[in-house]
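Intended use. Records like the one below are meant for learning the mapping from a protein sequence to its folded structure. Do not use them to infer anything beyond what is encoded.
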Amino acid sequence: MRILGVDPGSRLTGFGCIDSTGNHIVHIANGTLKLSNTSGKATIPLEERLFSIYTGLSKVICTYKPDVLAVEKVFFAKNAVSALKLGQARGAVILTGMIHSLKIFEYSATEVKLVVVGHGQAGKDRVASAVKLLLRCGDFPTADASDGLALAMCHAYMTKIDWLGVSGGKKKRLSLAESLGVEYAKNKVGEFR
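Structure written out for the chain above:
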């Protein structure tokens, strides 16, 4: 199964594409759609940025031909204006996926971090380190690109768990890192044993 993970944003939208077969996950591509300047007031109107999400993501979908799209769920932000813009970016991502006949799956940031790192409150740098190690890929253009890959990896893992019938049980689920024998050093953030 080819999975496209998308981390929506109104200025940067990250994506990551993987192939998942059995216990194997293979990195296909990752990148970031730069929709506006990342500091200060956005200079490109929001409606143009939303259209850029559609056109940029459509190119990614046509190039890599994913079977499904995994996107981050809405979270509650302190800034209402930022939350509304993020919601609109998510809407553009979901609509683009639907236009291209992809099945859409949503995961919270906590779910993704739990699956990939084993800790639901892990920072972006820790998620990026885990993704880099697990997929054996190089550095990412932005943290949004590694978040896109983490979303795709989360879907691959959750699909496997559901298929095995483990999700409803009370057994402790291992993170991807733990299931592959990678253990985070508790005393040093960002380092693996």
